[in-house]
Amino acid sequence: MAHGMPSQGKVTISVDEYSSNPTQAFTHYNINQSRFQPPHVHMVDPISYDTPKPGGHTRFVCVSDTHSRTDGIQMPYGDVLLHTGDFTELGLPSEVKKFNDWLGSLPYEFKVVIAGNHELTFDKDFMAELVKQDYYRFPSVSKLKPEDFDNVQSLLSNCVYLQDSDVTVKGFRIYGAP
């Protein structure tokens, strides 16, 4: 957890003293704050999805865990969509294509996507081991051939996909690591 402090036009990020020990951080802030909230983080009230954006501002819309269930989602207005993982159930190519089609229907100027733990096919090492066995937990994934998922990320043509990489959007640097 960090917060920024201006220093000659730059932002200095200070690291929370508990960032290296999440269990200790949870215990400390939960006990000392009655809820998990570091003292330098201030809660804001949510705004309606259709609230107009003030001029000169950039509005990020951040979502995750849609798990191939994007039908009927009413998305807020914004400039940048940031989907931070679990956009599929298993990372099947058909799920990735459906997600990409959904992204293509959205009006955001920029769309940035990062895979999550449900995008199994995005992890080649994991998949190489999985296809060697008849893995009971993911039968539909274990039946895929390597060529079915060799470059599944390329199916994401309606966004910038980040995998241990970054992109600068409207002056904001975004780093993504699945």
Number of helices: 5
Low-pLDDT runs of 5+ residues are: none
Write the element-wise H/E pattern from the N-terminal end onward. EEHEEHEHHHEEE
The strand count comes to 8
Helix content: 10-25%
Largest sheet: 4 strands, parallel
Alpha carbon gyration radius = 19 Å
Strand order within the widest sheet? 3-4-5-6
Report the span from N to C terminus. 19 Å
Nearest-integer average pLDDT: 84
Q: What fraction of the residues are assigned to beta strands by DSSP?
A: 15-25%
* Principal-axis shape: globular
What does this structure look like?
It is a single chain. The protein is an alpha/beta fold. The protein has five helices and eight strands; from the N terminus they run ββαββαβαααβββ. The strands form three sheets. It has a four-stranded parallel beta sheet, with no helix packed on it. A two-stranded antiparallel sheet has the order 1-2. A hairpin with a 2-residue loop joins β1 (2-7) and β2 (10-15). It starts with a strand and ends with a strand.
